[in-house]
Amino acid sequence: MKAKAYSTTGKARAADFELPDSVFDGTVNESVLHQVIKAYRANRRQGTHSTKTRHTVRGGGRKPWRQKGPGRARAGSVRSAIWRGGSIVFGPQPRSYRVRVPKQVRRLAIRSALNARATGGELIVVEPFALEAPSTRALVALFEALELDAGNVLILTDGVKNDVYLSARNLPGVEVRPWGEASAYDILWSDVVIVEESAFSGDDGEAAEDEEAS
């Protein structure tokens, strides 16, 4: 499988980049992607929602009227669920939404997400960034040369590169992750994935599992 290759200024290279077969085999497992993304989003939930039951709502200790005689329906508390200002029946209570996904499944989801982007022509390989200082203008010029006018962009660098991160920090819809630390959610969130060419040389392509889906 091949991907378009460019320089850091956005100039197209003569030959496409050959992606490593250990990761880019063209297989996209949609069921695994669904499982991991669902777990990722569930694990991000705080689970702090809380409604008051009949036992926790304040007031209502006195019976509003006597049981028999007044001609009205029987009532034992003004804080009943059928009263205004009363309790909530079967309302949400604090709980954990955490879902554990096996490590091999998370790795398979990352490979599937990368293959999905590569198959659709949404994965771009660029030469290693050599910024002497953070420069948002340089990244904007690269995006303009690549005609990336809209959508989310994920940049995968060869290790931690603070200059690239600081350059993209103020750009909306642009995220920077070291190669091997991007989750399947990050890859599918993006419309275009830009990978440094040198990132493939020192790693077999296995990205680290995101803790949110563990």
Overview of this protein structure:
The protein has a 6-stranded mixed beta sheet. The protein is elongated. It folds into 2 domains: 2-39 and 100-213, Ribosomal protein L4/L1 (Ribosomal Protein L4, Chain: A, 3-Layer(aba) Sandwich); 46-96, no CATH class. The chain has helices at 30-43, 103-119, 136-145, 162-168, 184-189; strands at 2-6, 17-18, 123-126, 153-157, 174-178, 192-196. It has 214 residues and is of the alpha/beta class.
Give the low-confidence spans. Answer: none
- The SS-based structural class is alpha/beta
Taken together, the total number of domains comes to 2
Q: What is the assigned CATH homologous superfamily of the largest domain?
A: Ribosomal protein L4/L1
Mean pLDDT: 90
Q: How is the biggest beta sheet arranged?
A: 6 strands, mixed
Q: Would you tell me which CATH topology of the largest domain applies?
A: Ribosomal Protein L4, Chain: A
Helix content: 25-40%
* Relative strand content: 5-15%
- Total number of beta strands: 6
Task: Going across the biggest sheet, name each strand in turn.
Answer: 2-1-3-6-4-5
Query: What is the name of the CATH class of the largest domain?
Result: Alpha Beta
How many helix segments? 5
Write the layout of secondary structure elements.
Elements: E1 2-6, E2 17-18, H1 30-43, H2 103-119, E3 123-126, H3 136-145, E4 153-157, H4 162-168, E5 174-178, H5 184-189, E6 192-196
Parallel strand pairs: 1-3, 3-6, 4-5, 4-6
Antiparallel strand pairs: 1-2
Summarize this entry quickly.
The chain is α/β, with parallel strands linked by helices and 214 residues long.
